[in-house]
Amino acid sequence: VYDSFRGVVSYVRVMSGSMQRGTRIKLFATEKTYEVKEVGHFTPRMTKEDTLGAGDVGYVIANMKAASEVKIGDTITDSVHPCPEPL
Q: What is the pTM of this model?
């Protein structure tokens, strides 16, 4: 989803580990890296949280400015300790 003030808002499911503000992430499809600016859950509105953990469904905002930078079904991983292959 695109928000004109915050850029791309990615809807995610965390498979393992956690994601929080300040985490450097990498998108497998484009090989681009970003810094996470906000994470949260839907309750049913978007509610900002400190962390998304394994099994959580929520959203991530990471200063992606164009929707074309994100591919549906792409794997997002930690850029410092990436997973070996996309899920």
A: 0.88
Q: Where are the alpha helices (DSSP H) in the chain?
A: none
**Domain 2-75 maps to which CATH number in 2.40.50.140, 3.30.200.20, 2.40.30.10, 3.40.718.10?**
2.40.30.10
| Pairing, β 7-13 against β 51-53 | unpaired
Q: Within a 13 Å sphere around the CA of 38, how many CA atoms are in the beta-carbon half?
A: 15
pLDDT in tens, 33-64: 999 999 999 998 999 999 999 999 999 999 89
| Total number of residues shown for the chain | 87
